[in-house]
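Input/output pair, single chain:
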Amino acid sequence: QEMASTNYEQYLKNCLAKYKNKDVTKREVLQVFTSYADLKPNLQPHIFNDGSRKDLLTLEGTIPVQYRGSTYNIPVCMYLMETHPFNPPLCYVRPTATMEIKVGKHVDSGGRVYLPYLHEWKHPKSDLIGLIEVMRIVFGEEPPVFAKSAASQQAAQSPYPMAGGQTPYPVGPPGGGYPSMPMPSMPGAASSTPYPSYPPSSGGYQPPSTGYPAGPSSYPTATSAGYQATPQYGSQPGYGSPSFPQPQYPAATSATPVASAERPPLESRASISEDTIRASLLSAVNDKLRRRMRETFQQAQAEMDALKRTEDDLKKGQRQLDEMIQKLDTECVEVDKNVQLLRQKDEEIKEVISKMEGQADTVDIDEAVVTTAPLYKQLLNLFAEENAIEDTIYYLGEALRKGVIDLEVFLKHVRDLSRKQYMCRALIQKARKTAGLGEVVGH
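Output:
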C-alpha cells in the first residue's frame, strides 16, 4: 500500500503539471485513493462546448452503493478541472456492456451526473470525498444504471439501438475497462442480475406512451445554465470520452448470463408500468413541491432575518435618540438655571457699583473691609503693618542712595523697623496657627 501511494504521488505530480492548485488537488486525490481504492487516477483529454481540448486528471472506477440491503458497484468517472478545487468536477456514469443508463433527475441519457452538491460547490466546504458520499446516497435512492434484459442482450448483434434514433452509448469491451464486480442478488428475485432491475423495452430506455417524461423538467439538462454540456466526440453525442471508443456490442453468449425467468403477460407489464409511472409522477411532483416550498421558506426566512436586523438597528437608534433627547433636556434645564443665576448676580453687581459710585467721597478705608472675628481683624492689621514697614525700609534705602539722609540715621531707623517687622511676623504665625490656617511661605 505504501509503495502504491508513492507511485501514485509520482504519477499525480506528472498529471498535475498544468493545475493551478497542485498541492490541494493532490491531497484530495490521495484521500480518495485511501478511502476508495478502486478509483484510479488517469490523464484523459476532454473537449468542451467551445471546441477547446484539455488533458484533465480523472478518477475512474467504481463506488459501492447500498440499494435495498445489497451493495452494488457503480462505474463512474470524474474529470477534475485545472482550477480544482475552486470549480466542481464533471461527473459521469459509465455503464458496462451489461448495463443501461437509467435516466432520472440526477443522470441524463449521456451519463452526466447533476447534483445540488455540484451546483453549490464552494471550496473549502466541498471536496471529492464529500462528492462521492453524496453520489453514494443519491444512487442508493435512485440507481443510475440497471441490468439489460436477456432479450436485449440477445438482440445486441449490432450497435445497440437507442430510443428515438439516438446514437448508442459508448461502453467498454466485455470484462474490460472496469474490474469485475460480483454483486449479491436481490432476495426473492427470479434472476441474478448484478444491478437493480428495470422495466424492459425493445430499444434502450424509452419513455412510455402515457407521456411520462424521461426526467422532471425542473432538473438541469445537458444545456442547463450552471452546468457544462456533455462533450461531443464524433458520432457519440450522448457522452464523450476519448479513452472509450465505440465498440460493437457482444453477442448474447459473451454477455453476463441472466436467468431466463418467465416474463409476465403484456397486460400485466403495462399495468405495472402505469403504476410505476403514476408513482414516479407523484414522487416528482412531491419533490418539486418540497423544493419550491424549501426555496420559498428560505427566501422568506432570509427576508425575515433582514427585517429583524433592520428592526434591531432602528430600536438601537431610537434608544440612542431618546438618550440624546434626555441629555439635551437636562442640559437645557441646567442652562436655564445658570442664565437665571447670572442675571441675579448681574443685578447685584450693578447695585453695588451704583452704591459705590454714590459713596466715592465718603468711603472710610478702615471700614471698607470688615472681618467676621476679632482674630481675623488682628491678622489683617498685622499684615497691613508688616507691609507698611516693608515699604518704609524701601524708601529709607532710596533716601540714603540719593543723599537725603546719612548712613547713621538710616541704620538707626532700619534697626527699629526690622525689630517691629520681626514681631509682626511672629504674631502673624501665632495667630494663623490659632485660627487653624497654614503657615505663610517666606515668613
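Residues 156-271 have pLDDT under 50 and may be disordered. The chain is about 45% helix and 10% strand.
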